[in-house]
Amino acid sequence: MLRITIDDEAEPVRLKLEGRITGPWSAELDRTWHSLGHSLGERELCVDLCGVSYIDREGRRILAEIYRQTHAQFETDTPLAEYFAEEARGSAKNGNENGNGSGKSKLRGESK
Fold this sequence. Notes:
This protein has 3 helices and 5 strands, in the order E-E-H-E-H-E-H-E. The protein is α/β, with parallel strands linked by helices. The protein has one domain (about 1-105): Transcription Regulator spoIIAA, CATH 3.30.750.24.
């Protein structure tokens, strides 16, 4: 199961993901992302991965697409969530699903 929460009044716009991004939930994330992407305009995006416990190959591809198109900030709170964020950044940079990430995520509780 996946819970997706969008706070489009926040700055940056916040896409909070909780649960497992797999199977039909990957498809739901893709639909949600494409809907949100059109309304972002010049606003920045933060993807909150703190509540994510698993991401399948398709979900990782979607996160890399989100990063590639928006250079979204990822919020993480565990080594696993940080791994997902790094993988998305690296895949987007390298144009594949298995790249090593670079850059940083904002850890929950950490100031800018």
